[in-house]
Design goal:
By secondary structure, the protein is mainly alpha-helical. It has 2 domains: 3-400, no CATH class; 402-440, no CATH class. It contains 18 helices and 2 strands.
Length: 440
């Protein structure tokens, strides 16, 4: 069977699993403030296409994301089902790209497949991004980041590091595309730098290779252009607490994000409606988080010392990708687990490698060799629990304040829109005898 057919079957598998795991979101609607911000911006783009480059608050410089969002709006209008289906399928594609990423670096199909499966089941990020219409932003950023890194790594490991190879051209193309989203340049360049360091013996090239310098120059040039032409300003502290507290808060936030990949339950509907067992466990939340933080630090330390270069790279990936959320966005977006969507790639790879390698060590024991897979199965079950609870919580929020007020605000700003049965509609699409404009 050719490689193309194999990859096509694996892609189909991940798309199907993503649909089966998240199809419960297809009957959801809009409730998050970002959801209504995207709807309002799509309406604004129907009036002027220059809105594609909006970047002043509440907007961000991400014309690619706004373009995709407007395309979906042009296709589905105010009907939420199409947006959620697109999110689900894009998540399946990202899971396939995680599989390709691990396979490219480790060349171990078992670890790569398990990594993709854990990612498609939302291990480490718990699906919040897929369950929000506005999660499109995080999904697209991750798609571009994965495509950029996969092609860069293939060029370095297979293509001989040539700047004229198709792998390098594709990596450069998607990297430039990432400049038109909420920028992940820091994460991508950090991942490249870590790769060049940990895989320097495999590639035979310097850490600061010419290819890396090209990406660095493009990132710096893009930042200058966005600043001068589009008046872009990177997100930072809304109130500057001083350099010492900036570093202190950032370090604390990094640990807090990593802990939430393992222990995502916090004071919310998850605890209130989770049953007595969940409430009992949450009663020890502080102690559990302290223990998990110490375990994470210990594992990272010993992983760097005793792990192979691929394990070291994915540990570094996890820390590198979480830094922008822990440093640049605090306190504007405090410990939001949707930010873990990109970060969790490193997390699922480490879990997968640990389970597969431990199983192989005791492979002569037919029954015991399955014991290491208890860990990934546990995280899949935990992810399912969280996803179901989040979905129920969002259904409640869709029918509760301040969601009706957000719909009314859009109607007041855009006279062509009305409310029918609690859903936004174009007046032109309403039946002639319908009055509209009512909330349930």
């Amino acid at each position: 069977m050719s490689g193309f057919i194999k990859h096509s079957l694996v892609l189909a598998l991940f798309l199907g699993l993503s649909y089966l795991f998240f199809h419960l979101a297809l009957d959801n609607s809009y409730w998050h403030s970002d959801d209504f911000s995207y709807l309002a911006h799509n309406l604004r783009m129907t009036e002027t296409k220059t809105a594609l480059f909006d970047n002043q608050p509440p907007y961000k410089f991400q014309p690619f994301v706004y373009g995709v969002s407007y395309f979906l709006f042009h296709r589905f209008g105010f009907e939420p089902r199409g947006y959620f289906l697109f999110n689900i399928l894009l998540h399946g594609l990202n899971s396939f790209l995680v599989y390709l990423l691990v396979q490219t670096l480790l060349r171990d199909r078992a670890v790569a497949m398990l990594s993709g499966l854990l990612f498609v089941f939302a291990v480490g990020n718990y699906g919040k991004t897929i369950l929000l219409m506005s999660g499109l932003e995080d999904l697209l950023i991750t798609t571009l980041t994965l495509l950029t890194t996969v092609f860069y790594f293939r060029n370095e490991l297979v293509g001989g590091g040539k700047t004229r190879s198709p792998w390098f051209a594709l990596s450069l193309f998607f990297f430039i595309g990432s400049m038109f989203t909420r920028s992940t340049s820091l994460s991508i360049l950090g991942a490249f730098l870590a790769f060049n360091y940990f895989f320097r013996r495999d590639t035979g090239r310097r850490v600061l290779s010419p290819n890396f310098v090209i990406f660095l120059v493009i990132a710096a040039g893009a930042l200058v252009v966005k600043t001068l032409v589009f008046h872009y300003a990177p997100p930072f502290y809304t109130v500057n607490p001083g350099p010492f507290k900036v570093v202190l808060y950032a370090a604390k936030n990094v640990l807090s994000y990593l802990v939430r990949m393992i222990f995502p339950i916090h004071t919310s509907y998850l605890v209130v409606e989770g049953g007595p067992v969940v409430r009992f466990v949450y009663g020890f939340a502080t102690q559990i988080r302290i223990v998990i933080a110490l375990v994470m630090l210990s594992y990272s330390f010993f992983g760097f010392i005793f792990g192979n270069h691929t394990i070291r790279f994915f540990i570094a990936w996890t820390y590198i990708t979480v830094i922008p959320f822990a440093f640049f966005q605090f306190p504007a977006d405090w410990l939001n687990i949707r930010n873990l969507y990109l970060v969790s790639i490193g997390f699922v790879m480490v879990i997968s490698a640990g389970a597969v390698y431990c199983s192989r060590l005791i492979g002569h024991h037919r029954a015991r060799r399955l014991i290491p897979f208890i860990v990934p199965v546990f995280f899949i079950l935990l992810a399912r629990f969280v996803v179901v609870r989040l979905d129920r919580n969002y259904e409640i929020k869709e029918a509760s304040p301040p969601t009706p007020e957000r719909r009314e605000l859009i109607v007041r700003r855009y006279p062509s829109v009305t409310i029918d049965g609690g859903r936004l509609r174009y007046k032109a699409d309403m039946p002639a005898d319908s009055t509209g404009g009512t909330e349930p």
